[in-house]
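Figure 6 in text form: structure in, sequence out.
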């Protein structure tokens, strides 16, 4: 039961012949139950260590790694599993110390102590098996954790909170980068916003995910902006299709301001403004991007992502972006002057009609 290196030593212990050589037949059944618990724990620890980014010096390669998907969400999921095991590590270490100090404790005492953690171990194994069998990745993995909140066990609620938090951080990071900067850094196709180039375009979605992180405006074209779309296979249940469209709109609007807008203006419009009112996304947010970034980060304060709070935050950001678009249209493109000319045109037409009628 040594917890040196947090559970890695369990596997080597399970491969020994301790039961056959040193256990009395009367105690063998109890000891085998203890072994079953430790075996299940070993699977969980192995998953958390291998996919959570532990050095290969600490754990050998996982033979079933090919059965899982790849990506940042899976790595964060494994880190969440590791966080959920912290309390177990501490309590088991206390049990070890107590057993070493008092040799009169029976195997049944040890088994009863370990059995208290069995519901948590079974729950964690289920989450891991779901990820393996369904090959969940990205928002699919987050969705599976989201629906796993529906139970009445307070201990399991605490566990799912710890497991979900790193995965929620990955999701909110993707969301913030898209909404505020128009960036999709999505090497493993984990987010529900996807870049889909037109047929005949050489760049792949991964290539575009990489190039979209660059700050140079010259890499963007007006046509490319509208090639972003919703990947419904990764759309979690707490994000409705309508809300996803709003998220897509905000990110595409940000990308518009990454364009060299002087290139898309006609010559007749250039003299109306001595200089561009909005050259980049800094002017779009007008110094308020930090406020909206905090608004998104605050969504991780809740144990479970609140669909209503998420929608409220997105609506607030979309409202601000829409207002800024109106301001920019009025100032830079002299919208009031254009509307005034249209009004004068129709009034002039009415005056001419009146004069012709009087004549």
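Output sequence:
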């Amino acid at each position: 039961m040594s917890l040196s290196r947090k559970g890695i030593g369990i596997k080597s212990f399970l491969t020994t012949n301790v039961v056959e050589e040193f256990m009395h037949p009367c105690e063998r059944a109890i000891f085998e139950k203890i072994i079953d618990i430790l075996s299940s724990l070993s699977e969980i620890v192995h998953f958390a260590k291998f996919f959570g980014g532990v050095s290969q010096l600490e754990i050998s390669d996982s033979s079933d790694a090919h059965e899982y998907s790849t990506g940042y969400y899976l790595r964060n999921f494994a880190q969440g599993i590791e966080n959920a095991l912290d309390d177990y590590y501490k309590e088991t270490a206390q049990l070890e110390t107590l057993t070493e100090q008092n040799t009169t404790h029976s195997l049944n005492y040890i088994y009863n102590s370990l059995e208290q953690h069995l519901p948590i171990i079974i729950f964690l194994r289920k989450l891991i098996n779901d990820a393996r069998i369904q090959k969940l990745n990205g928002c699919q993995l987050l969705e599976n954790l989201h629906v796993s909140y529906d139970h009445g066990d307070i201990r399991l609620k605490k566990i799912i909170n710890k497991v979900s938090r790193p995965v929620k951080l990955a999701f909110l990071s993707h969301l913030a980068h898209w909404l505020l900067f128009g960036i999709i850094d999505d090497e493993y196709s984990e987010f529900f916003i996807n870049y889909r180039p037109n047929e005949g375009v050489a760049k792949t979605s991964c290539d575009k995910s990489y190039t979209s992180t660059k700050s140079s405006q010259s890499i963007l074209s007006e046509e490319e902006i509208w090639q972003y779309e919703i990947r419904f296979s990764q759309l979690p249940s707490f994000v409705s299709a309508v809300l996803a469209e709003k998220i897509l709109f905000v990110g595409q609007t940000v990308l518009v301001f990454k364009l060299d807008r002087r290139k898309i203006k006609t010559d007749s419009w250039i003299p109306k403004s001595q200089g561009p009112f909005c050259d980049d996304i800094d002017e779009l947010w007008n110094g308020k991007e930090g406020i909206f970034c905090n608004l998104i980060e605050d969504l991780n304060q809740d144990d479970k992502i609140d669909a209503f709070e998420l929608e409220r935050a997105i609506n607030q950001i979309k409202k601000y972006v829409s207002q800024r678009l109106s301001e920019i249209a009025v100032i830079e493109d002299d919208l009031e002057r254009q509307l005034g000319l249209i009004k004068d045109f129709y009034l002039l037409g009415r005056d001419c009609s009146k004069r012709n009628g009087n004549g």
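Caption detail: The CA atoms of residues 257 and 281 lie 6 Å apart.
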